[in-house]
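Format notes (please read before filing issues)

Several people have asked whether sequences and structure tokens are stored in separate files. They are not. Every record keeps both together, in the order shown below: the sequence lines, then the token lines. Line labels are part of the format and must not be stripped during preprocessing.
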Amino acid sequence: QVQLVESGGGLVQPGGSLRLSCAASGSIFSITGMAWYRQAPGKQRELVATITRGGNTNYADSVKGRFIISRDNAKNTMYLQMNSLKPEDTAVYYCNAEVRVLPLAPTTHWGQGTQVTVSS
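Then the structure lines:
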């Protein structure tokens, strides 16, 4: 059984910052790719950022230069530092990870989501 738990969401004013965390737990052998997604009300879930086990990152154009994705492999934890937040960043943020639990092949897991609201 693998669990991904997000934390760090909340209410912040435009221009402010938040740091999200995603902690994976369970009988984990390894975690390869990890990612943050978000879903705003009435919209489809969209990819925000990805990070490989080796630390290679990619970002959606809408967050480039403002968000930083990182991970601590020893702690099975991923982070999203969000700076210069805008009202359009308001969404539920989900973490996603490819997790291998021996002897099975890697499978995709999702967290339950954490709400980020950017408003004055």
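For reference, the curators noted about this record: The mean pLDDT is 96. The first strand starts at residue 2 and ends at 7.
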